[in-house]
């Protein structure tokens, strides 16, 4: 029996397992990652715009700096399920600690310090999780059915995100970021994340066969140098990374545009905290359905489609300032973000040409770190410094974002998606 046939035998079992995990996580992601709730919550706790900019900063530092550590620790593991579960569970524990500390210290400087420490640790753990998780998903799904499997997973995640976002509207409208109820939210999310991750035990994993033998005698720093050099020589992959960098532009937009809407455009905080995010996830669900099971467009076509949606959203934020324009922009941002989430992992694996592409998933955020870390901090600092410009300061940020997304589109058009292994689940022969 071929490797792909064996994977297809357990396709529905594996898809159910990863869907259950991502549904559990989807319920809490609107609060803790790429969240309008989190920026408004911190503003209510007395945090500055610069401090709010630390959220995506910590997140991208975690994604970039620590990803290679988990890649190094797991690359020679034939079975990676336990590593994936452990990293997911501990990540949930960090959010539980945020809730407990908020309950104990309330709205105080002590809480803000603990919050940023816990969130930084959470970001590090997510950074360590993602390369192993992405590789694991592509390890338990055949090359032919990986996009459809990931689409079902992301639909489950985004349906849960949508439900979580709708609840946030109710929560903010009723409790207005009260300390007690906010603490309960963080504690509940931490528990759901940790327990929901146990659904990974339902998935079926086969022992890994290396396409490229690895030297177990390499030190961590030798491994880092070797991995970076391996990726650096893949010029086509570098073009792809430049084309994929608009992800960080979109996340930066999401980190600030709710404050713009509530402060300068008269949008109700409850609407911005919940409905904006709900529209983002509704857009993601639509694109997951259209581009997943229906298999519309090639990999390059999917990326062009995503960037067209993101450019349209940014243009709406620049030109208009009505409630409906914010909701439509949120929907389009969801299409762009959702499409990228769907095709990123298959694209990385294809362009790497490797059976185990963990190191590519780990090195990629390191290369893009200067943009991912600097952009939200620079935007936060700029918005603090030029408050006197009012809403114009935000529109200038959106104009810069539009230009960066346009540049990324050029690099995607330059990327040759026909290169790489057409059958990445097969071990190449010498």
Structure, explained:
This protein is mainly alpha-helical and 430 residues long. It has a single domain (3-200, 219-414), classed as MFS general substrate transporter like domains (Growth Hormone, Chain: A, Up-down Bundle), CATH 1.20.1250.20. Helix content is 78%, strand content 0%. The chain has 18 helices and no strands. It has helices at 3-9, 11-32, 36-44, 49-65, 67-74, 81-105, 109-140, 146-175, 179-196, 220-232, 235-244, 246-264, 269-291, 299-319, 323-352, 358-367, 369-385, 391-414. The two termini are 22 Å apart. 53% of the residues are buried.
The fold-level CATH name is: Growth Hormone, Chain: A
Distance between the termini: 22 Å
Radius of gyration: 21 Å
Helical fraction = over 70%
CATH superfamily: MFS general substrate transporter like domains
State the low-pLDDT regions, or none: 209-213, 421-430
- Shape summary: globular
Secondary structure category: mainly alpha
Tally of individual helices: 18
Beta strands, count: 0
Number of domains: 1
Largest sheet data: none
Q: H/E element string?
A: HHHHHHHHHHHHHHHHHH
CATH architecture: Up-down Bundle
Mean pLDDT: 83
Strand content: under 5%
- Per CATH, the class reads Mainly Alpha
